[in-house]
Amino acid sequence: MPLKNNMLVEFCLPIYNEETILADSVQKLYNFLIDQNFPFDWQIVIVINGSSDSSPLIAKKLSLDYPDKIKFTDISEPGRGQALKRYWLKSSADIFVYMDIDLAVSLEAIPQLIQPILNDDYQLVVGSRLLPDSKIKRSFIRELSSQTYNFLSRLLLKHHLSDMQCGFKAISQQAFVAIAPHLQDPHWFFDTEMIIISRALGYKIKEVPVDWQENRYDKRKSKVKLLYDSTRMFKNLIKLRHRVKKMPHHQN
Predict the structure, then answer these.
(1) Pairing with 29, which of 41, 103, 127, 206 sits 20 to 30 Å away (CA)?
(2) CA atoms of 194 and 81, how far apart (whole Å)
(3) Which residues are CB-contacts of 108 (< 8 A; sequence separation ≥ 6)?
(4) 107 Cβ neighbours under 8 A, 6+ residues apart
(5) pLDDT-based confidence at 222, cuts 50/70/90?
(6) How far, rounded to the nearest angstrom, does the alpha carbon of residue 191 sit from its chain's CA centroid?
(7) Which pTM was predicted?
(8) How far apart are CA 161 and CA 150, in angstroms?
(9) 202 close to 124: Cβ distance less than 8 angstroms
(10) What's the CA dihedral at 190, 68, 19, 25 to 10 degrees?
(11) Domains of the chain, first to last
(12) What Å distances lie between residue 225 and 98, 147, 221, 228, 232, CA to CA?
């Protein structure tokens, strides 16, 4: 499929108190994207949510250093999900990509993440750490927690995807605008909502394998609280199942 003129892809980085790795990660992503010579326009968007450290100042400096390719938005309330939702609903980009600021997923996976949407074959593409071709390095407890959550989500929501929570996804603007009214969670459950509601509304979803490494940056500590998050996620899965049953399903 030939790309339309001036197609814009935005690479969004949700940020909550990430001053220790923000500049290095953004520079690494910028260098990678510059080297790709993509046949479309692109920008990096730093989406700050509720940060109390120097992340806004760092983001502002990066946007001044690369005014054509890096910009930022500063949302006062914390919550990755609501920050991305707010920004994406205001954006005029054709495709939204988001990834975690620690760049745990190898950037080499970016082309295969966005190409299915560029080809108009899929509307949502999600990175998976659990496909046969994926490569993953993480602690046993984190692996157990992830596998348990994904098993429960498949059991309760009747889907066949392998990984709901990998912070590496791309979605078309058209699909996101359609699902946005149904997205409620302001935090981490946003990922699961985005996938399940997209599927309920008939959008095509593709999983791609990724190379994922925990603790790629030694200075960063995970913000996930396993017991608390697992309990909350289970409750959210039950609630989402009831919500989806009440939705007017249709095919695109």
Answers:
(1) 206
(2) 10
(3) 211
(4) 28, 29, 32
(5) low
(6) 7
(7) 0.88
(8) 8
(9) no
(10) 80
(11) 8-246 (3.90.550.10)
(12) 22, 16, 11, 6, 10
